[in-house]
Amino acid sequence: MTQTQASPYMASSAGFAQPANSEATVSGVVHTNVAEYKRGVPISVGLGITSGAYRLEGTLGYQSNPVYKPPGVVLSGSDLSLLSAMANGYRDFSIGYSAISPYLMAGLGGARVNVLTGSTSRVNQNVLAWQVGIGTGLKVSDRVTLDLSGRYYKTGDVTDSSGSTPVTFTVSGIKYLVGARVNF
Q1: Cα pseudo-dihedral 116, 117, 123, 125, rounded to 10
Q2: Structural domains for the chain
Q3: Residue 169 and residue 23: Cα distance in Å, rounded?
Q4: CA–CA distance, 89 with 106 (Å, rounded to integer)
Q5: pLDDT in tens, 53-82
Q6: DSSP string, 84-134
């Protein structure tokens, strides 16, 4: 039996993110589609360690999405940004001697949610965040693996108290990422 040695790596990725339309709770009443988002560009960098079929990775990420909705709606004319710190676990699946390795992943961490209207920050809160995803790695050398993935992400409740009545909403959606991992 061969013992697998742990190996550190650095990872980076970028792609596009499409948040789902937000629902908001105002005075106990749920309103749907209070914010519709344009696609944004998520980027992330991380450090990880791999051992056999398992990886553990810490990442810092940023994404920004313009909000488009008719004037007068709760979050209209705003920009949404997320700054996140996540701990992610991965399970890689080997396909024989192939350079392709599909994987499953899940992560938990925090996000700083910022809703900016003009030059005024309406919301700037730290909340819990989580994500799950699937992907495929393509090993192009002994040290470099290219990565293609899709992830569903969601934050905890965010409260906008800038108006006369507090508004609570969450941010969720899909990210499609292309990246690379470089083993040390």
Answers
A1: 0
A2: 7-183 (2.40.160.20)
A3: 6
A4: 6
A5: 999 999 999 999 888 764 445 555 578 899
A6: EEEEEEEEE---TT-SEEEEEEEEEEEEEEEEEETTEEEEEEEEEEEEEEE
